[in-house]
Automatic annotation (TrEMBL):
Source domain of life: Bacteria
UniProt record similarity statement: Belongs to the fimbrial protein family.
One Pfam family this sequence matches: Fimbrial
Keyword annotations from UniProtKB, A to Z: Fimbrium, Signal
Gene3D superfamilies (alphabetical): Fimbrial-type adhesion domain
InterPro entries xref list: Adhesion_dom_fimbrial (IPR000259), Adhesion_dom_fimbrial_sf (IPR036937), Adhesion_dom_sf (IPR008966), Bact_Fimbrial_Adh_Pro (IPR050263)
Principal location listed in the UniProt entry: other
Residue ranges annotated for the Fimbrial-type adhesion domain, each copy included: 20-164
Cellular component terms per the entry's GO annotation: pilus
Protein name, entry field: Type 1 fimbrial protein
GO biological process: cell adhesion involved in single-species biofilm formation
Annotated compartments: Fimbrium
Length: 165
């Protein structure tokens, strides 16, 4: 029988790694609720005939929840917060939000609760900030982009930013 050899467990074993961090400290009127920062919206299955017939699919609601809104600025020599504007951004498809994937002939449209249509990179109209919590409501839907329709899977990544003043 051949004896098994064991490592000397008293010898230290070195291993090392890296932690990357980044961040910023900024002054804003509101914080964005963590559940509003990254949202996934399941658009479901839509018959191509509905887009051909109606030019659009069903609206899917989503919201951006603002929390701990305060009108008072940290620097008292500056004017208090009064307004905000939100800008949605993504790949532009003739003023709509482009999709990626096999599906063709459609793009995404975002509409706010006042009926204003968002355009990639352009802010929606200015709104007033209210103290406390605020829920900003939007709907997202597929619309025809006037190109030839082709069925298939699709996806898109959209971003938003808030500007306060």
């Amino acid at each position: 029988m051949i004896p098994l050899s064991y490592a000397n467990w008293s010898t230290p074993v070195s291993a090392w790694g890296r932690v990357n961090m980044q961040g910023a400290i900024i002054e804003t009127a509101c914080a964005i609720d963590t559940q509003s920062r990254d949202q996934t919206i399941d658009m479901g299955v839509l018959p191509i005939s509905q887009i051909a017939r109606d030019g659009r699919g069903l609206a899917h609601d989503f919201a951006v929840q603002l929390v701990q809104c305060s009108l008072t600025r940290h620097n008292s020599s500056l004017k208090n917060w009064q307004h905000f504007k939100i800008t949605f951004d993504g790949q532009n498809d003739s003023g709509l939000f482009s999709i990626n994937g096999q599906a063709k002939g459609v793009a995404l449209e975002i509409i706010d609760s006042n009926g204003f249509v968002a355009s990639p990179g352009n802010p929606l109209p200015v709104s007033n900030i209210l103290s406390g919590n605020m829920q900003l409501n939007y709907s997202l839907r597929l619309v025809s982009n006037k190109q030839a329709l082709r069925p298939g899977n699709y996806s898109s990544a959209l971003r938003f930013k808030m500007d306060y003043y």
